[in-house]
Write the C-alpha cells for this entry.
Amino acid sequence: MDAALAPEELGPSKGLDTISLLSNDERLKGRPRLCSDCGLCDSTLSDLMSKSCVFVRNQTEEIEQRLHGRNRRPDDELRFGIYRAQYAARMRRPNPNAQWSGMVTTLGARLLEQGKVEAVITTAAAPGTRFKAQPVLARTPAEVLATAGNKPCLSANLSLLDTVREQGIKRLAFIGTGCQVHMLRAVEAELGLERLYVIGIPCSDNVSYPDLEYFLTQISRSPETVVHHEFMQDFSLWLRHENGKTERVNYVDFPMDKLHGVFPSACLSCFDYPNSLCDLTIGYMGAELGWQWVLVRTETGEELLEMLRPDLEFTELTQSGDRSRGMPRFIERLTHPPGAKRPPYLIRKLVVYLQRKKGPKGLEFARAIIEMKLLRNLNYVRSKFARVESRVVPYHVLQTLEPYAKTYSEAFDRPLASKEH
C-alpha cells in the first residue's frame, strides 16, 4: 500500500471498475485467472494445481462420493452440503478474544491437548495488525488459542503443507475456508497422513488486506478501532470496537458504488459458502443471534463434536419467514450494473423494517443467504467468465435454484440451465 495515502484515499487495489484478478499480481502470475491464493501453488504440490484447483475444475461431486459414498439429497443438503446432524451451540465459557464463543480454536487446542494431532494449520493475525491473515502451523494448544478472532482476508494456508511433510507430521488438523478445504481434499492422498481432521469455517467474499482496510473506512465511523466484524442474521454488519461498543450498519446502507472492485473474482465465483467438504462446519448463519450453527458432516466430525460437547450449551434450531418472497426482487437487482448507488434513505429504512419484521430467520435465513450467493455468483461467472462455467459451477447449484428458473429467465432473457449443464 502507498504509505502516502490513507486507505480511504487509495480505493480498492484493483480499481472500482476493474475485474479483481489476483493472478494479475506479480507474485501470482501464471496461476488461473480465478485465484483465491489458497497457498497450494506456493508448495511443492503446485504441479497438482490443474488437477485440484476448484477454479480450474470443481470436484465437489467426486469428493462427496469419496467422503460420504453419495451425493446430496434433494433437500437442504443442496444448500448446506451433506450433513449427519446440525445444532445451535456455543461455549459455556466464551473466549473473550474470539469472534464468537471460541469453539473453533478451543477444538483445535483440544486436539493437541489429547494427542490426537501433532499440529494444527490455522490463521493468525500478522504481527502489528488485527486482520491481516498469516498462516500458522501450531504445535501447542496455546499457539492455537492465540489465533482466536476473525481474519476476513485471503490466506495461503496450504503453503504450510511442505512444512507438514518436512517435519514428518502424520496427524494433522486443518482449519480453513471452502476453497482451501476443496484443494486439501483433492490432494489429501498425496500427503501421507495417518489422520486428518478438517474444521470448516463458512466463508464469503474475503478480500486482500489493503482492500479490507479500505472497506472498513467506507463502512465504519471509526475504522481504526474495529476489533471484530461479522455479517449478521438481522441483515446488518456488526462491528465491535475497542471500547466494547457495537456499531451496526444495515446491508442496504452499504455504499456499493464505492465498494465495487473490492471483492476478488475468485470469491465471486465460489459456490461453497457452507464449507461443505470439511468434517465439521462451525459458523453462525443458521442459528439465532448469539449462537453458532454447527453441521456434523462425517464420522470424524462426530468425533470432533463429542470432544467439545462437555463445554457446550445447546438450543433449538428455529426457522421462520419465507425466503421465496424476496428472491424475485433480488434477481431483478442482479440485472442492474454493479456498483449502483444505494436507494434513497426512506426506501432503505422501509427495506430494513421489512427485512427484520417479515424476513427469513434461523435456518430460513441460511437458505436465503446461500441461495442469494449462488444466484449472484452464477450470474457473475456467466457475465465475466462464461467459458469456464461448466467447469467451475458444481452440479448442485442449478438444482438448488430451480424454483427460481422462470423468474431468472424473465430477468436475464436466458434459461437458468445452460446447454453445458
Observations:
- The chain has a mean pLDDT of 92.
- The two ends are 42 Å apart (CA to CA).
- The chain has 17 helices and 13 strands.
